[in-house]
């Protein structure tokens, strides 16, 4: 099959038989569920843009396996140029959807596996890489969306997997069969899970010998027997159920996250990419995390939307020429571009791994993500400053349509000549959406915790800098004889 | 009547005949409306605490008119000690409700009017102060909650009131009668409006001669003929309509804001406190703003709740002893107490006005509020850091109760021994409520824009500092002869 | 004696026979030493202002012992009003000198001792308070400047005093005699030491039983036998030795710090205020630290000078009306006033101790100081932004006077009509002085470390907040039943 | 000639006959002047490293003119890889010298001229590019250090060059001769001027028709007749004149800046690269500024030294394992690497100009530099936090050597076993040097103002972002029909 169109993607989802729960009920039609649908729209855009000539350079790549043009989301990075394009693809999609478009996590998982399966094989003489490449070819050929599933519930954080009172707090092998393995456990915070064809499971932390049963990585169809999805709820989620559309802010796109439960699920051997090689769990986590921290370039894209919205409301309010407003817009752009710089830089400074895959600079990827845990909050604060208090005191769309009070609202919320009150409401609701509503979940809290919480990056920064060299020069410059 | 009890307050509200609209429909029972009710609970607490001995010192005062014990919210500050107690009362209530308790705006309006009506009379030989004191005695005697209504819609911000294409964009007198005046216009962002017995109207900006019809201040019963309230909606507002209670975060308290429309409303002369004295509009705005910027001590109280919640989730997550978590809690406290310092300092540095009323330091009140436009955002960011990503990926209460998936949720969201999954959910929902949900409206966006947007404070800071003295000393110290 | 005049103070210093070393040589004439002299000028101002009617209210107080008017620097605070005046006195002096005026540390030591000597006596039946009050009367009567000496060298920070390889790393008793004790050790970072008549020694940390010999507090004349002062050097110190005056920035005032060595110094019993009561060492440290953290209100005064200088250079550069410059000046003021708020608030929230002395709020004093470790750095950064690069590329005063190149400099450094190039140089040198030069030592680095390094305040903030109450309410609000 | 060695460079400087003034006197031996010498050492290192195999890749390039290996500082960037290597070369040198090494400004001037001379020729049919390339070949062949001179004194900032009361406030042509032109004026803040062989002059602002005489660019030997250098003084400059070496902090390297006066200096036509083409002045300024803002990667190098010093003093103080110290070191690294990311990203995102030269991304170069105006100040603040107060209270080197007090100092400033007091002093003096002393001039104030003050970058950021696209998507997402 060639790359799927958006329509083909949507159709392909309809064929899946996912077990999805939301608000305590089974979701019968996942694709058309009003709360889930906007997130599907966002993934769908990753298919649509790949067919548009102006985005072809960013959205597609040439498979190093088949030599065919593929969607970049299924590509294994073959150069720093590929890495930089990944950064730009992420920002592009964020800037067009104003939300999380979910497909990067599978890409990051596949790239990490392309490195680690190779390294395991080199060291242990296994054949994981061969298996993985066969699986990859299938994904590329069918242009599939994969969920990369890493985060286990973790139970008592002070205990390793095998010491947990409940052995399922980390996903693990419960049975080895001739044709495969049976696993049990759960993966939390799974972004875009129910819009995916496949789910790729990885361990979530470094492991030691006792945890061997937990050192497991594999891929499954999203609707494999025994997998259940339970949707997380988001701020303002039920506004999508309301009759009007203005109050939801973003008319088209959204994100979602789910808890994925694996209840004794069978995985055939050809889809197992790590099996008890606990000593490689840490590397897989670290490589995936580095790739995924780079991926937060998407937040610069969401920032683009929020900046555009802030500029627009400033104009609607008649305040766009006030020097303090202009200065705040500049600050928003400055912070947003600083985020982008981090993602570009870690890509540009990436390097070739033994497998041939290019990996970002681990140090700079962590620096990039660390800024993502800060700047979107400040950008949001500035957006709220510019928006004005009306953003949180605006009556509902129904009030504006009400025969009793609608006219009053239209009268009193008018600003300058030529500015539509409805348009002003719309842009205010978009800013609310990104800074307090459903998109705030992705733009703020997930910027904080996605791809690892801030402290995780700080630890990595600490490990990756060459402190010895810095100290050596400092001592030389002030005349301290290096102690030997 | 003595001070009302909470029950008496609630009963008194039921007697009002308010015209309230929400989601395009008239609210038939305001007091019991599930979205409005939590905000009534918060005001009710201001009545309840006044009867509790441990809070008597903060919550009550002695009327300088009647000599009787009154609720401090109806008191005119007679000393800097009164001002400091006002700060502490605000923090106390914020720390007990975790939200905006709404009653300060009327107190601030009355104190500002006690100064300005006196000053008008002194200059122009009018009798506004006498009228006002009579009205004040009525408020104190009946222990009423007053809405202080200042912010007009303002239309085209580049034009003064009388130049607006629509003359109603600022509330104004449309007719003078023998027994009073008729007014038209609207007041936006009215916090606690539908929980109030009275509404006290003030002009919103400095005015010049052409704006005389707009220079008007008066008080009306909240249910006077011609007044309509249209509720603003808040992030996650409809969660209060859901069957469960966990997902709303704060079980008890909330805030609300409304647009208040005055459609040719009659005001008898005895309730008119400014009438066309445009040259005093600016002073009234400034005095009210100074008092109200002090009032944001309440956000230190909400901060207390958020800090308590952050510490609790840290404990539930088993992370409370991690040095970076402890450090973040300290930073939250540090920022929160810095907010409190600003409110205490502007009170402590307050002074007696010609009317006998004590006014806060205008400079320091603006400094106080300026910090309020910043620190709650950072405190929220840190709270989200500590809370973890689960705060925005947690399934709904209904999922936890679901026979199909509830057990899985309880199993997989368990952390350490002895920690209740439900309690963890509850505290996460409270943090969500304050940082993204209904309370975020008050804790964040209203911290930004309430009592004036940040730029308003910056202008006041610029005007209030004694730059000439600073420059004089700087020049002396470096040997510049002062130019005369 | 009544309060000394500035001249009498200077004369009194000339009578002292201090052992002072600087640049490896003994300073024969301390008072006239060009590097030390500016710091003496600053202390002298504390005497001069006390005689000026406009400053009398802040600079003087009524002794609670003698009932006489005394310099406030020798006063024991008898009310929160006294505490607030102390804050204002500090800011006033900072704003007039642009540097550290050194006399607060003795005041803070005496106030702390007034509390702790009383508490020791109450618990142990000793007579330290009586001794102390007699000494205090002597200080008040003679209007003396006292150095409060707390910080020991501390050696290996991981070891308590009595476990140090060198027993002298903390000052301690080496001999007990009939008429007194003999002590040995040193005190570091002693601000204003060689401008003082007296030195009051206190322990530097909480102590346990083994450290009893180190739990000692006493007062000595500054020129007691066995005391030696070794001056610390400051950035740009030797500019004061240059012929011209412009390049030193501040023409009049400065600060200094010294290491004070006690080489077997005898202390008579009547001047010993703590002797082996190790269990009170911690309280003395904490009370002194709280007072001294309040004292950093002086930095808001230095900030006033820097802001005045920044405004002046903006005017000289013709940039004062640029919106970004005005905004930076506002930000400087905002931060500076926030510092002031902290000091006012901890004073206002102070309370009476059993001894009758008023102590500041420990929590808010620590919050105050924590901000002092941050904001002066940002204020300096903004001042450098406004000043322009010339501040660090300006040729020397001698170049401006040079017959070969002076005219060129005067020509090319001219800005707008009517602006004196020399005056511009002067104000640039003042900004350099405060942000990089001798005054930067006090405004920046000592703001960081004086009265305890930032982490010390964070620990105290952590201890002082009522976390249990915050958690209790948070749990109530979200429906968690308090565990009993 | 091949690339010069360090020794050859130093020898070449000795042959120059520069007119240099400092402290009001002519400097007879520039190379050996103790204040200037450290800056020469830093430039010298750019020659030395080019001969070391491990640095060859960064320090050298292949000339696109001659095809020979040249020092990268004389290279015209032929690819984004060249641009990225420029970034890394800058960081490398900063990390080895701990100061400004001065040679980048000439490289940036030449690259900007390689673009603009080409563009002028294309539009106007002139031959500037040919002239420039010939000159470039000379520079490359002789491996010269060039000073890029842009900043004019500017006089009254509100007036354009030709309206200034003194026509010399911007450098301009005063006479056109057959064989060349005569110029007059001055260039301020000239980093590394007296260590340069050549000086390349460019206009400093965009110009209009009346300013044609000011639109001039050319190159001259540094010792051309009529050029005079007047050295700027730096914080702590005279410590380099002291006998000891510890107190100067950095034993080897430093920077300098000078005012360069052009008093009717003749320039032959073959060295004139712009002559009255005022419409290209703005482009030249902007291209140079973009390159030079990229160059501030060097500050990440200086940051490396400061971080190394902070880690070292933490170890000497026995505090390196305290969690708050580790966290501060991480923060320093994080900010420092964020600076690096900006410089890498603007290089990576650079593009080919019509002349063939690669130019950095203007937007990201400005974002990069904007962060440089902030983060070094915070890194310095953290370094001072870690260093402790001793950094500013430490006695002089002479005191430590003094027979009277040296032993006491050595005794009392000892920390843990095995830590040399002298080494601790040395590292403290290095931190003082970078945060308050001579190197602070470069690390802080010049980070603020070099390559344009912060507001200049903000204006460029505002111009370079695609706001229309951001607004278009924001409107689409919330359902606003784009107005046509």
TrEMBL record, chains A, B, C, D:
Domain (HpaB/PvcC/4-BUDH C-terminal): residue spans on this chain: 281-478
Enzyme class: isomerase
GO molecular function, one term: vinylacetyl-CoA delta-isomerase activity
One Pfam family here: HpaB
E.C. number: 5.3.3.3
InterPro entries in the cross-refs: Acyl-CoA_Oxase/DH_mid-dom_sf, AcylCo_DH-like_C, AcylCoA_DH/oxidase_NM_dom_sf, HpaB/PvcC/4-BUDH, HpaB/PvcC/4-BUDH_C, HpaB/PvcC/4-BUDH_N
Source organism, top-level taxon: Bacteria
Keywords: FAD, Flavoprotein, Isomerase, Oxidoreductase
SUPFAM superfamilies: Acyl-CoA dehydrogenase C-terminal domain-like (SSF47203), Acyl-CoA dehydrogenase NM domain-like (SSF56645)
Residue positions binding FAD: 191
Keyword Cell membrane: no
Domain HpaB/PvcC/4-BUDH N-terminal, residue spans: 5-274
Protein name as annotated: Vinylacetyl-CoA Delta-isomerase
Highest classification ranks of the organism: Bacteria, Pseudomonadati, Thermodesulfobacteriota, Desulfobacteria, Desulfobacterales
